Amino acid sequence: xxxxxxxxxxxxxxxxxxxxxxxxxxxxxxxxxxxxxxxxxxxxxxxxxxxxxxxxxxxxxxxxxxxxxxxxxxxxxxxxxxxxxxxxxxxxxxxxxxxxxxxxxxxxxxxxxxxxxxxxxxxxxxxxxxxxxxxxxxxxxxxxxxxxxxxxxxxxxxxxxxxxxxxxxxxxxxxxxxxxxxxxxxxxxxxxxxxxxxxxxxxxxxxxxxxxxxxxxxxxxxxxxxxxxxxxxxxxxxxxxxxxxxxxxxxxxxxxxxxxxxxxxxxxxxxxxxxxxxxxxxxxxxxxxxxxxxxxxxxxxxxxxxxxxxxxxxxxxxxxxxxxxxxxxxxxxxxxxxxxxxxxxxxxxxxxxxxxxxxxxxxxxxxxxxxxxxxxxxxxxxxxxxxxxxxxxxxxxxxxxxxxxxxxxxxxxxxxxxxxxxxxxxxxxxxxxxxxxxxxxxxxxxxxxxxxxxxxxxxxxxxxxxxxxxxxx
Length: 473
Ligand SMILES: Cc1cc2nc3c(=O)[nH]c(=O)nc-3n(C[C@H](O)[C@H](O)[C@H](O)COP(=O)(O)OP(=O)(O)OC[C@H]3O[C@@H](n4cnc5c(N)ncnc54)[C@H](O)[C@@H]3O)c2cc1C
Fold this sequence. Notes:
Blueprint: E1 2-9, H1 13-24, E2 29-33, H2 40-44, H3 47-61, H4 66-69, H5 81-105, E3 109-112, E4 114-119, E5 122-126, E6 132-142, E7 146-148, E8 161-163, E9 177-180, H6 184-194, E10 200-204, H7 215-227, E11 231-234, E12 238-243, E13 249-253, E14 258-261, E15 263-266, E16 270-272, E17 306-308, H8 319-333, E18 347-349, E19 355-359, H9 362-367, E20 372-378, H10 383-388, E21 394-400, E22 406-412, H11 416-428, H12 433-438, H13 448-458, H14 469-472
Parallel strand pairs: 1-2, 1-6, 2-3, 6-17, 8-15, 9-10, 9-15, 10-11
Antiparallel strand pairs: 4-5, 5-6, 7-16, 12-13, 13-14, 18-19, 19-22, 20-21, 21-22
Helix pairs in contact: 1-8, 3-5, 3-6
The chain binds flavin-adenine dinucleotide.
Residues 9-15, 32-35, 40-42, 46-47, 50-51, 114-115, 143-146, 164, 185, 273, 277, 310-312, 317-320, 322, 348, 350 line the site of flavin-adenine dinucleotide (FAD).
């Protein structure tokens, strides 16, 4: 039996980072991956496919130019499935090549197959046939990610009813679409299809969605969706889904209404991929959603030499945070220096329009009884926004009245997921409103919105006066 310092189960962002980190500090590492090629949900069915689809749709639909040329403007008149698929395959091939090279360069061994624990220091790997191979380990990282939740009453068939893992694999442009679940994934796909003028109905059992995002940003987002004619059915459940004789989906809602669309995407949750992992042989147990509990700082499970990282441990379930968790787990396992994780990480939602946020929301600031002031900037107030023909998009900054520190940056609109990193840096470096007021920003840029929003707050804040600052606004 081969023995390794570290065995990683799963080659998504968490597994890959854990493996590379351990290899970089000179440890022997084996990665076991169930799929034919490495990359995880992130590369094969989740992050990269959905973002590639989004980029293709925004380009072909001429979405970014419609502010100037009107709603009827198109780069390609009829967008078809094959237009969407071509770019996807090229992007994925490139991503996988880069990953395989990264593993090879760092001397990380990979093996294809489904892993399960047989005791606290051994896994068995099955690849296709009946034979199983055993590998021993000193430490392990469980980075198996999640799979879509597929309730029995939904007739998934991959021709008209899809889940969040297969909707982008061979993309089609349906005549109409129902999206069940207004979580991040549901909203991303709903708005991407709607940007191609596909009529979309979004069904969500809760009255509100994206509750961790600042409410003012969500109000703006909902306004955008309604302006585009998206039907929002909030506070109702999908009771049944049937396929009619034309192959269209007919959903019956808990309020008795019916929705008939050519395609349905069920995106109401994902479950940890821990079934069949043999957790019990190591004294581990997953919760009812297949998730594992870990120490928030070290990512150790209740069995100290077995770590878990990525989506299998739950929120925030992002590729970006999964990578960091994997890295920290490997550092901890081998006693490598591990500076504490920064206080705030950004959250990006690649809907159309995109949303990105870092730090506290206004509701959180209120709940903590912190005296605060907000500043708002609209992208249409910036010269760059004029040049780009932007009509929507806003930034909201929240500052402490006591310390003047930035507490939160919340952005909706073009470039939000890039712009947020300025706010992230100022926040984690404990910067104040004065940073934005005193520093020059490239002109014309959307980043200028930081200055405008900061000045908006600054003008209502007592205390430090910076000569001329008020006059600029
Ligand atoms: C549609 C969609 C869009 C998303 N968009 C974004 C985004 O824009 N930005 C962002 O940051 N995040 C996004 N995410 C989330 C992101 O994809 C996940 O946070 C990330 O993939 C989690 O990484 P992971 O390493 O935990 O696991 P995964 O990427 O899920 O990989 C786990 C791997 O483990 C393998 N595995 C499972 N069980 C076994 C086993 N027993 N043996 C061997 N291998 C096994 C699986 O086959 C899989 O390849 C998106 C997710 C989805 C579904």
